[in-house]
Amino acid sequence: MSGLEELSREELIALTRALMAENTALKAEVAELRAENAALRERVAKLERLVSRNSGNSGMPPSVDDLPGRQQPKDREVSSGRRRPGKQPGAQGRALAWSDEVADGDIVEHYPQGRCGCGTDLGQAADLGVTARHQQTEIPLLVARRFQHQVHTVACRCGAVHTAPGVPPAPVSLGVNLQAWCVYLLVVHAIPVHRVAVLVASLTGAEPSPGFVHGLIGRAAVAVASRERADPDAAHPGLRGVLRRDAHPGRAEEG
């Protein structure tokens, strides 16, 4: 560098320090660029792996093979001893079939709504009959209802007083159908207690506590045991040996 011999000692020291600082900054910038370059290489490799996946070399469905940039699978022959995916040759097919057993109350009539181009209300138009039919299988919306049971007491002409049976010990309770549903989810599907309580609340609006749901296991076990003593063949075979307080469905764990 020309003119260095004309610089004083202090100026040379200052220049050296400035160059060292600049060199340190450049090294840091180079290290940062190298890290970014490595991250970009890893990202490109990951994208290449994703693009190379298709129905032939992964579990992805064949519909993804037509996506832009997707590598097409290689043609390969399926050995005669390998089971093909989907419906097997000769297997019985299943499809929704038309049914003639539809109650009159389950028939929904659809009429055109609005106004005609001439301005006439279509509600006043003449009905020309049914021109198309469609059947749809649906389940009713399950919403828990509150029933109030009033227990009456009557007096016989002889003076004896009689009260209707079935007075529950608590003023508010959950019905037997709702209890049976909880036991069914606990035992047959092995759903934990907290999940059963959340599931019933989400589907019906009723809010049984996890403690109440857990207590149904013991009550159901007593009922099944009593039924088996009266008639050994009456109880459901799937309930035997399952309805115990320490059984898997009775776990009170959450989640």
TrEMBL record:
Entry annotated with the keyword Coiled coil: yes
Domain DUF6444 per the UniProt entry, residue ranges: 25-94
Protein name per Swiss-Prot or TrEMBL: DUF6444 domain-containing protein
Disordered: annotated segments: 51-96, 229-255
The keyword Coiled coil is annotated on this UniProt entry: yes
Record's keyword terms, sorted: Coiled coil
Sections of the chain in a coiled coil: 16-50
A Pfam family matched in the record: DUF6444
InterPro entries per record: DUF6444 (IPR045618), Transposase-related (IPR052344)
UniProt biased composition (Basic and acidic residues): 243-255
